[in-house]
Write a sequence for this structure.
């Protein structure tokens, strides 16, 4: 029956936007008035029938850093790909994919338990207890597809559509997109100019709204190389407690600290902190896609629902490698890698005339004095002309005059030659 033929007064009918449970009648369309209502058939004919895309996703960039990388494939000479955060080093011997055989690990090509393999869960529990001093059980750990999977599960489990996540900026570039993909709103909080914990808290408070549900921090920081002092992390933990926020602590570079000490946020506010870690950054296993998240058992149970319905479980072979590296040569490998990274980062910073990194594997440079009328894109073009790739600052937040370079993505001699190229472009 057409809507115009339905009985009852206007007050008895659904108002625009209303649709009672169990009522199969269509919702009124904006601009359609009683007495001039089309039939159900004509309404259906006027509705677009083609598939559409989520506006939050269709507006996202498909590239994280720059679309210039493909240009290097046609150039001759040595290439300096300093734009992607990775390591040139292979994982420790005995912890590589070539070291695992079905004969020794029956079922290694089958699904792993959704929470994680028991051996790896136990190794993570032991590690977290020793490093943070926080009592930790298996129920508080979820093995994930890298820290990316960990943070996706966190945002999917804690953030409702339209709610806001405050993100200390500059930030790891995927976190903004993860929040957006789960229909939340990322809110950058620039902190490079903050000179005290009080200033940092004030910067966060300035952006707090009734829709704010979580605060994300990454220390040691990608891309700036900053290590937040303990007093700063304490101030953020106290702010999160007072304002009822979740504290999302991205600690994938925990082992790569060259000045100061790493502060574990979960030790300061365990009831509201979810900490993410990655074998990718820790042990050169980026291709394995394995990491983990630690937090309150009740929250981790919710995260597990998201992970189960997105990636189901982390790769089984990667979990075998993760357990072996934690129980075997991991500590020695990290010590060796950290010394190499520190040396390369210090030399790169000196050549570019900037402070040495305090941690992580990056330098973040303000190049505003070296931009012409083409702006940052022009500088990136000049770099490509010299076989050099660096990452544009806007990938990491509101930084239109910055670039990031990774000093571990290639062997040290290649990285330093690339840094020398950049230094000459910048007139240094």
């Amino acid at each position: 029956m057409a809507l115009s033929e339905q009985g009852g007064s206007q007050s008895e009918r659904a108002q625009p936007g209303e649709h009672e449970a169990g009522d199969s009648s269509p919702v009124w369309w904006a601009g359609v008035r009683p007495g001039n209502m089309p039939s159900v058939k004509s309404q259906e004919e006027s509705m677009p029938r083609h598939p559409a895309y989520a506006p939050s996703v269709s507006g996202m960039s498909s590239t994280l850093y720059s679309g210039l990388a493909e240009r290097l494939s046609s150039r001759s000479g040595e290439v300096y790909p300093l734009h992607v955060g990775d390591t040139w080093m292979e994982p420790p011997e005995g912890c590589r994919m070539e070291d695992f055989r079905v004969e020794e690990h029956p079922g290694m090509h089958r699904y792993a338990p959704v929470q994680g393999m028991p051996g790896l869960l136990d190794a993570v529990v032991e590690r977290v207890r020793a490093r943070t001093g926080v009592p930790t059980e298996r129920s508080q750990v979820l093995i994930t597809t890298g820290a990316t999977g960990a943070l996706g599960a966190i945002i999917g489990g804690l953030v409702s559509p339209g709610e806001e996540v405050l993100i200390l900026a500059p930030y790891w570039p995927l976190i903004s997109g993860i929040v957006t993909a789960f229909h939340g709103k990322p809110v950058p909080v620039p902190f490079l100019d903050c000179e005290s914990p009080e200033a940092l808290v004030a910067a966060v408070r300035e952006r707090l709204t009734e829709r704010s549900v979580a605060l994300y921090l990454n220390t040691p920081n990608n891309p700036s190389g900053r290590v937040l002092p303990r007093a700063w992390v304490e101030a953020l933990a106290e702010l999160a407690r007072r304002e009822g926020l979740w504290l999302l602590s991205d600690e994938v570079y925990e082992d790569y600290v060259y000045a100061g000490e790493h502060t574990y946020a979960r030790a300061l506010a365990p009831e509201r902190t979810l900490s993410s870690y990655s074998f990718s950054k820790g042990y050169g296993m980026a291709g394995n896609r394995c990491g983990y998240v630690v937090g309150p058992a009740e929250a981790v149970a919710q995260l597990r629902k998201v992970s189960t319905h997105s990636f189901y479980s982390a790769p089984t072979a990667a979990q075998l490698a993760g357990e072996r590296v934690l129980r075997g040569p991991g500590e020695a490998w990290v010590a060796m890698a950290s010394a190499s990274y520190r040396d390369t980062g210090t030399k790169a910073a000196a050549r570019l005339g900037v402070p040495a990194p305090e941690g992580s594997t990056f330098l973040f440079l303000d190049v505003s004095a070296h931009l012409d009328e083409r702006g940052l894109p022009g500088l990136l073009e000049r770099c490509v002309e010299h076989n050099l790739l660096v990452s544009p600052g806007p990938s990491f937040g509101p930084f239109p005059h910055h670039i990031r370079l990774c000093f571990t993505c290639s062997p040290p001699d290649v990285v330093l030659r690339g840094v020398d190229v950049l230094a000459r472009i910048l007139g240094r």
Observations:
- The longest strand covers residues 212-218.
- Residues 1-35 have pLDDT under 50 and may be disordered.
- The CA atoms of residues 368 and 401 lie 5 Å apart.
